[in-house]
Prior knowledge:
Layout: H1 3-15, H2 18-25, H3 29-43, E1 48-51, E2 54-57, H4 59-84, E3 89-95, H5 97-114, E4 118-124, H6 127-135, E5 141-144, E6 153-168, E7 179-180, H7 182-185, E8 189-192, H8 198-209, E9 215-219, H9 223-231, E10 237-240, E11 252-257, E12 263-271, H10 278-296, E13 303-305
Parallel strand pairs: 3-4, 3-5, 7-11, 8-9
Antiparallel strand pairs: 1-2, 5-12, 6-10, 6-11, 6-12, 6-13
Amino acid sequence: MELRQLHYFIRVVELGSMGRAAQELGVGTSALSQQISRLESELATRLLQRTSTGVVPTEAGLAFWPQAQLAIRHVEAAKAAALHARLAGQVSVGMAPSTGAVLGLPFLLAMRERYPDIGVRLVEALSGNLASMIGMRQLDLAVLFQAERAQRWSVMPLLEERLFVIGRRGVLALPDKGALSFGQIAGLPLILPSDQHGLRALIEAAAIRAGTVLNVVLEIDGLAMLMDAVRAGLGATIQPGAATARLDDPDLVALEIADAQVRRPNLLVSLSDDELSPAGLAARVVLADVARALVAGGKWPGATLYKA
């Protein structure tokens, strides 16, 4: 099996066309097809299937595709390490927007200080989307709020976050300090993420336990837009402590929810150790160290370190 065959196969799958892939790769279509056939012969299975509109991966091809991507990334990382004679390569890290607000920049600064030759790609997305990206080998690691047990992932519980009610002073009947029960929250117009968001499920489950029906007036999945709506006085929201890290508005108040069971877990999830590149292994250690330091230093609002 040759690396160029992996490159060819990956590009054909991405473009869905032998002709387009051959053009981008700078090879003839027949030569490209021949290399793919050799790869299939070595694996003793068909990876691609021709259709009226191009080519699509077979079931075996879909299984082989992310592993081929991973192999290419590891080879590139090895080349970079050899060239620089020290740890180098690329690592892709995912965080939810609220997590990125408190963890993103400190992590990037720590990586630059410890491993200046490792290139970092930081992706902000919903936790569920990040989990899918790890499953497709598009990310090396991410901070998630739940992990699928069926996946061959490395999962490290990091910390738990308390939840806060955030609203505009003078517009909503919110006290200046103290904690709120779900009974008090029930009367508030709420702006929350939609049902596809894990935080919404956590909040709804807590409300059910408290025998409370929430008054959701708006659903917004983007954190920046959601907070803009809160600042405009359209309602209050419920968010973890990390979401308050960028609050720089004296007109907003953040009040902790009194329910001790309302906690959002933060899990450091990565590809399994045998799949993770040296750069990925290094980044995982740095990410855990930075998160723990932020909590210990009181710089992660409402967070407590996980205790086994």
